[in-house]
Amino acid sequence: MFKKILIANRGEIACRVIKSARRMGIATVAVYSDADRNALHVKMADEAVHIGPAPANQSYIVIDRIIDAIRRTGAEAVHPGYGFLSENMKFAEALEKEGVIFVGPPSPAIEAMGDKITSKKIAMEAGVSTVPGYMGLIADADEAVKISREIGYPVMIKASAGGGGKGMRIAWNDEEARDGFQSSRNEAAASFGDDRIFIEKFVTQPRHIEIQVLADKHGNAVYLHERECSIQRRNQKVIEEAPSPFLDAATRRAMGEQAVALAQAVGYTSAGTVEFIVDGNKNFYFLEMNTRLQVEHPVTELISGVDLVEQMIRVANGEKLPFAQKDLKINGWALESRLYAEDPYRGFLPSIGRLTRYRPPVETTSAAGVVRNDTGVYEGGEISMYYDPMIAKLCTWAPTRAGAIEGMRQALDTFEVEGIGHNLPFLSAVMDHPRFVEGAITTAFIAEEYPEGFQGVTLPEAELRRIAAACAAMNRVAEIRRTRISGRLGNHERTVGDDWSVGLQGQEIAVTVAADRDGATVGFADGGTLRVSSDWTPGQSLARIDVDGRALVLKVGKIPSGFRIRTRGADLKVHVRTPRQAELARLMPEKLPPDTSRYLLCPMPGLVVKISVEEGQEVQEGQALATVEAMKMENILRAERKGRVKKIAAAPGASLKVDDVIMEFE
C-alpha cells in the first residue's frame, strides 16, 4: 500500500480523502493557494505545499505546480478529488510520466468518457440511447444559434469538459442561445481551461438519475445502485438521495448493467458515474460519464456500506474488488443536502465573508439513523470568492425514506451558520414540501415551485402557536433574569406580568404565561393551552424546547423586544411585548427602504466581466446590462424595465461589493 498520497484539490473533498487515507494508515499531502493558507484541509494533512495565487487557473489547475509539490514531498500517488484536474487527461499522463500513480481511471478512459462529445459518440456506437444533439465543436455564437434552431428549442448548451453545473445554460430562443454560448464558453475556460461547447436537446420534465460504478484492474466491475439528483438549481445539484423513489428493480438493474457495460467498453477502472435522464415512463437516456468521484458519493456509501475513496485507493494500488455484484444490496435510505454560501432571499446569489458561527449538528451513527457532515470549513474561516460556494454536505440515513427526511429536518434545524448568506432555510423548506415528501420531483422542481424565488416559509397556524408559546416562555426567563440585576435604585423593584402579546408573521397573539419550577403553561384567548419546558437560557443561540410533548428546535437571536427565530425554513421576527407596549407599537410609523429603482446595484460580491451598454443608450426590459462573475459562475444582469443609461459607475475588471452601484438610469 502507498505510504504517502497527495490530494490535488481543496475544501470538503480534500478533507474527505484525508479521512479515508488516515484510516488506512497513509500519510497525506495537501496543496493550497494564497486564499487557502489557513484552510481546514491544510490543517488536517500531514504536509502542505503552497502552489500559487488564489485564482484556480494560477494554482489548482496548473499541472506543473502539482508535479513540483509531488517531487518536493515524495508522494507516491495523487487523488484528484472532483473538479479542477480530476478529469484532465494531460494531468493523468503527466503523473504517469513522473512515475506517480493516479487514483482514478487510465488516461485513455478519461479521454474517451471524460469528454462529453466523445463519450456520446462512443455511447451511440455501443447502442446506448442518447439525447438528440450536435456532437461537433461549435465555433461561435452564430453557429450556436443555427444549431439550436435545427435541434429545436429548448436546448442545453454545455461545456465539453468538467461538470458541477459550470458552463451550462438552457436556451429557449435565439437570444438566450447567443448569450448562453458566450457565458458557457467563458465559464468553461475559467474553470477547466477548456472552452469547447456542445448543444443537445433539453428534455422537459426529466429526472436526473445516475449510476455509481466501480471497476478494478482485473476485469471486475460493479454498480452500486443509483442516486436521484433531480433537485437542481442552475443545473447544479442541491439535494440528492439514494436510492431513487422513482425507479423499480427492473429499471435499476437495466441502468446498472448498461453503465457497467459502458465502463468496460473503454477499459475503465476506479470509481465513476454514468448519468442518465429518465422520463415519466422510465425510459432512460445516457447523458455523460463523470470519470471521477462525485460530490454526492456519500449517499451511495451510506446505503451500500462501501467507502468509495478507500476502494479508489485500493484499485489504484492494484487490488481486486472485495465484492461482486450479488453482494451489493440496498440498505435503507440516504439524503444529502448541499449547504451553499448563497443567499436564498437574494435569488441564491453568492455570499462571501467570515463564518462568525459554524456549528454543524453532532455526527451520529446507529441502527436507527446516521447524521454525517462532510465539510472543508470551520468557525472563523473565510468563504472565498475564488472557488465553489459549497460549505458542507449534510447527510442523513435511516431504514426508510420518511425516516431519512425526518432526520434531515432535525439536522438542518440544529445547523448554525452566521456571518454569510446561506441556503439552510431553503433546504429546510424542501424537506417539508409535499412534492418532495411524495417523491414527485423533476429537474424543474425548484423553477416550478419557487418561480419568484425563495421568500421564506409561511408557517401554518398550529406551528405559529407553538412558536408563540415557546417565545413567550423564553421571554419570561429573560425578564426574570433582568429583575435580578444588582445595583438597582431603591423603590425600583421590577415585576414580571403574566399577560403578553406575541407578534409574528403579521399577526398578534395574546397569551398568558403561568410559570412554575418545571416550565410554563401558556394560555391563548380561545381557551387553549400549551405546556412549554426547556433548559434554554438567555444568550444561547439554539433552543431545544418541548411544547406539549413535541420537540421544537429554534435558532434564536436577540432583537429589541423579542427574538429573531429561524426554524423549518421560516425566518421570523417575534416581538414579545406587554399589552400596553403592543398598543403603542401599533402607532409607530413604518420605516420604508430607500428607493434604488434608478440604479443597477451589484447583487453579489464579484468581478465585473463586461458592461454591455453605454452612457446615453436606451435599454429595453430584459436587455443585458452587465456581467458579473462570482465563485466561478457568470451572472448576466438585465434591465427590469425600459429606460436610458445616465451614468456607468463600474468598468470591466472592477471588484464590487454587494449593492455597489454599477450604473444609474435617468
Give a verbal description of the structure.
With 666 residues, this protein is of the alpha+beta class. α2 links the parallel β2 and β3 (47-52). α4 packs antiparallel against α5 (107-114) and α5 (107-114) packs across α6 (116-125). It is globular and about 85 Å long. The N and C termini lie far apart (69 Å).
Quick tags:
eight-stranded antiparallel barrel, 17 helices, alpha+beta, globular, 27% helix, 33% strand, 666 residues, nine-stranded antiparallel beta sheet
Q: What topology emerges from the helices and strands here?
A:
Blueprint: E1 4-7, H1 11-23, E2 27-33, H2 40-44, E3 47-52, H3 63-73, E4 77-79, H4 89-98, E5 101-102, H5 107-114, H6 116-125, E6 133-134, H7 141-151, E7 155-159, E8 168-171, H8 174-192, E9 197-201, E10 207-215, E11 221-233, E12 236-242, H9 249-265, E13 270-278, E14 284-290, H10 297-304, H11 308-316, E15 333-340, E16 342-343, E17 349-350, E18 353-354, E19 357-359, E20 364-365, E21 370-375, E22 382-383, E23 390-398, H12 401-413, E24 416-418, H13 424-432, H14 434-438, H15 445-449, H16 461-483, E25 499-504, E26 507-516, E27 519-524, E28 529-534, E29 542-547, E30 550-559, E31 562-567, E32 570-577, H17 579-585, E33 599-601, E34 606-611, E35 618-619, E36 624-630, E37 633-638, E38 643-648, E39 655-656, E40 661-665
Parallel strand pairs: 1-2, 1-4, 2-3, 4-5
Antiparallel strand pairs: 6-9, 7-8, 7-9, 10-11, 10-13, 11-12, 12-15, 13-14, 15-23, 16-17, 18-22, 19-24, 20-21, 21-23, 25-26, 25-32, 26-27, 27-28, 28-29, 29-30, 30-31, 31-32, 33-40, 34-36, 34-39, 35-38, 36-37, 38-40
